[in-house]
Amino acid sequence: MAKQATAEKRQRRERGSINPDDIIKGAFELAEQVGIDNLSMPLLGKHLGVGVTSIYWYFRKKDDLLNAMTDRALRQYVFATPYVEADDWRETLHNHAWTMRKTFLGNPILCDLILIRSALSPRAAQLGVLEVEKSIASLVEAGLSPEDAFDTYSAISVHVRGSVVLQRLYEKNAAAEDGGVALEDNLVVDPENTPLLAQVSSAGHHIIAADDSNFEYTLNCILDHAERQIAKGGKKAPAKKTTKA
């Protein structure tokens, strides 16, 4: 069942005792209870024990508050993500992708703010651009052309974000009050009519699912292609194969 938009009532604060950091911190606490969709200024005021006008003094509308939350979430996420290193590009890029996936899947609020809402403030967007530049520079140093380095990192980024968003939407649909059912749960595999699908399904594979197995397979396809591009350019790529994180 979807969480109802309720919040614990706290003892009311004195006038002027709240600041932007307190509001953002309280918004994250409340979002953990009710979700980003149900987060509202009046509900946040009740959670913090202040009048809603105290919040509007710093954040004129909900989008302004969400932008501030996104800025903070993105800074925490970037610091927790390992860098791509040129001398071991395949292993570090592989770990980079898995860390991004696990970080977003393990933090639904982070996922909703950065991936689903996808409305970054100029400051957050600039921070993201700088991190992408670092990763592409490492891939160029490893032997890829700037174009191939960009395409490689972009493909992995889209792969990570797409798989996470699909999983998050599946979870939201499963928790909906109307009892919505995801497409993959409606698929019926009949051994008579679809013997190959039945065979792989019985071995634990999931159809149209963004699970770890599908994620790892596609990730390695991207990395294999990049390795071939490096070899074609005359620079020997590390022979070490990555394993599932």
TrEMBL record:
<dbReference type="GO" id="GO:0000976">
    <property type="term" value="F:transcription cis-regulatory region binding"/>
</dbReference>
<keyword id="KW-0804">Transcription</keyword>
<dbReference type="Pfam" id="PF00440">
    <property type="entry name" value="TetR_N"/>
</dbReference>
<dbReference type="InterPro" id="IPR001647">
    <property type="entry name" value="HTH_TetR"/>
</dbReference>
<dbReference type="InterPro" id="IPR009057">
    <property type="entry name" value="Homeodomain-like_sf"/>
</dbReference>
<dbReference type="InterPro" id="IPR023772">
    <property type="entry name" value="DNA-bd_HTH_TetR-type_CS"/>
</dbReference>
<dbReference type="Pfam" id="PF02909">
    <property type="entry name" value="TetR_C_1"/>
</dbReference>
<dbReference type="GO" id="GO:0003700">
    <property type="term" value="F:DNA-binding transcription factor activity"/>
</dbReference>
<dbReference type="GO" id="GO:0045892">
    <property type="term" value="P:negative regulation of DNA-templated transcription"/>
</dbReference>
<keyword id="KW-0805">Transcription regulation</keyword>
<dbReference type="InterPro" id="IPR036271">
    <property type="entry name" value="Tet_transcr_reg_TetR-rel_C_sf"/>
</dbReference>
<dbReference type="InterPro" id="IPR050109">
    <property type="entry name" value="HTH-type_TetR-like_transc_reg"/>
</dbReference>
<dbReference type="InterPro" id="IPR004111">
    <property type="entry name" value="Repressor_TetR_C"/>
</dbReference>
<keyword id="KW-0238">DNA-binding</keyword>
<protein>
    <submittedName>
        <fullName>TetR family transcriptional regulator</fullName>
    </submittedName>
</protein>
